[in-house]
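Long-time lurker, first post. I've been practising inverse folding by hand and with some scripts of my own, and I keep getting stuck on stretches where the structure tokens seem ambiguous. Below is the full token string for one chain I'm working on. Before anyone asks, I'm not after the true native sequence, just a reasonable design that respects the backbone. If someone could post their per-position residues I'd love to compare against what I wrote down in my notebook.
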């Protein structure tokens, strides 16, 4: 992509409304634009990151055996009246009336909608286990939308729903998602600690939140300091017995503040850490809470009906964009992990239109692009200082900086955004170095 043909509305000044780094940097890097409180337009650079995250989430869901579907954003009120949540959900639910005066709502989550699919099509225990997921926009009329996409009103969630014949079988589904979450967050370069959590309006008796530690996070958390020495090793196969693996993680103390009770806490004060964090995922087992009320049953081997045991599993896809930035930035801007970076590298032509820099930039751009990499070429007419500041701000892992003086001396600069390390290399060596990096 040539910057001259792109839409990257970077801001030089810090926007006043942004209180935390990720919100500030997302606005400054031209990733999003606020439409109304807690509702955002995703601009090209932001959308690219959102879609990269979405794809990692999708791949790990698929690997775990879950099947992708797409349910609507707008749901009929009847389904929620059946489960009893239409009234319980309160003012967080955006209620809509259609032209026939039918009560509808913009879905804050999809337990009811997916239970309706299950009861319409599943007849026998032989169809189970089943896990259906989608990646879809949600709306929650939060009292205090804040921190940009971190607590939005409209936000993108991956939500999966498992169906099983018994509590034991549902536990296997729960463990699979647990492991899929460890793998998903690891691929994004994040350490997300699974913590025992409250089930809130979703309900049920077993639940874990996956939390990234960050001072600006909204969740208070308590955990054994042993977590600091624990690697969330995830070269685990879904064919393995996952129970001992999940138990290993869940037996080490980690609870959200709603669940932590100093009176019953098993960890000595000296070994207990208290921090803040961002909840990027939340998984639930709630048994037959929805299936019993909504009549989602299958016939068992003995011909008798069994209410389906269900769990639901959420990942905050749009929140992750902010969470990743909270976890990885410096005073100059964002530092993307390669797996979610909007482009693989930038080529910065410090003097676009110059007879010496242009051909070198074109050669690098063409060779890197032909090798299948997604490259941003800054061919704009901005000043060199502004260009370098913008590139640090948008945080691509690599920059090749091409200036007329360097070319005269036979070199370009290859900069690693994370370490800040810059080396002078011939254009060919810089190219080969990057091709090796990208594999
Ligand atoms: C699980 C999937 C659920 O809704 N039903 C379907 C269950 N869980 S949850 O914890 O309420 O939400 C799942 C994840 O969505 C993200 N999230 C948000 N992201 C941005 N803005 C919000 N207002 C918001 N609310 C929830 C979180 O990452 C959460 O873990």
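-- Answer (accepted) --
I ran through it position by position. Result:
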């Amino acid at each position: 992509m040539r910057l001259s043909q792109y839409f990257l509305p970077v801001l030089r000044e810090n926007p006043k409304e942004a209180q935390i780094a990720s919100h500030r940097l997302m606005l400054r890097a031209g990733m999003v634009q606020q439409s109304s409180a807690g509702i955002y337009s995703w601009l090209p650079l932001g959308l690219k990151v959102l879609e990269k995250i979405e794809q990692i989430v999708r791949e790990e869901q698929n690997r775990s055996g879950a099947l992708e579907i797409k349910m609507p954003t707008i749901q009929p009120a009847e389904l929620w009246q059946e489960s009893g949540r239409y009234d319980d959900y309160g003012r967080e639910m955006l209620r809509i009336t259609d032209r026939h005066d039918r009560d509808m709502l913009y879905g804050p989550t999809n337990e009811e909608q997916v239970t309706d699919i299950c009861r319409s099509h599943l007849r026998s225990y032989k169809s189970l286990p089943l896990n259906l997921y989608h990646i879809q926009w949600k709306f929650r009329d939060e009292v205090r939308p804040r921190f940009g996409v971190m607590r939005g009103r409209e936000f993108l969630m991956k939500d999966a729903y498992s169906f099983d014949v018994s509590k034991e079988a549902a536990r296997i589904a729960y463990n699979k998602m647990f492991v899929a979450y460890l793998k998903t967050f690891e691929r994004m370069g994040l350490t997300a600690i699974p913590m025992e959590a409250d089930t809130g309006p979703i309900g049920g008796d077993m639940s874990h939140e996956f939390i990234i530690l960050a001072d600006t996070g909204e969740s208070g958390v308590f955990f054994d300091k042993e977590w600091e020495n624990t690697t969330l090793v995830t070269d685990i196969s879904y064919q393995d017995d996952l129970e001992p693996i999940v138990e290993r993680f869940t037996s080490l103390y980690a609870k959200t503040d709603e669940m932590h009770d100093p009176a019953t806490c098993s960890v000595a004060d000296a070994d207990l850490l208290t921090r803040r964090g961002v909840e990027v995922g939340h998984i639930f087992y709630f048994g037959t809470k929805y299936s019993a009320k909504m009549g989602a049953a299958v016939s068992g081997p003995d011909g008798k009906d069994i209410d389906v045991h269900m769990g639901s599993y959420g990942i905050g896809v749009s929140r992750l964009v902010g969470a990743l930035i909270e976890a990885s930035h410096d005073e100059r801007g964002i530092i993307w992990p390669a797996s979610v970076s909007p482009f693989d590298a930038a080529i910065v032509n410090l003097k676009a239109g110059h007879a010496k820099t242009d051909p070198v930039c074109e050669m690098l751009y063409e060779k890197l692009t032909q090798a299948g990499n997604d490259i941003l070429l800054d061919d704009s007419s901005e000043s060199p200082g502004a260009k370098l500041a913008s590139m640090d701000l948008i945080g691509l892992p690599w920059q090749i900086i091409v200036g007329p003086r360097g070319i005269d001396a036979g070199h370009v600069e290859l900069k690693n955004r994370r370490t800040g390390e810059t080396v002078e290399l011939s254009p060919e060596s810089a190219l080969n170095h990057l091709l090796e990096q990208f594999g």
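A couple of notes from the structure itself: The pocket of '5'-O-(N-(L-prolyl)-sulfamoyl)adenosine is lined by residues 109, 140, 142, 151-152, 155, 157, 159, 202, 279-282, 284, 312-314, 316, 318-319 (CB under 6 Å). The chain has two domains: 3-333, 343-438. Happy to go over any region you disagree with.
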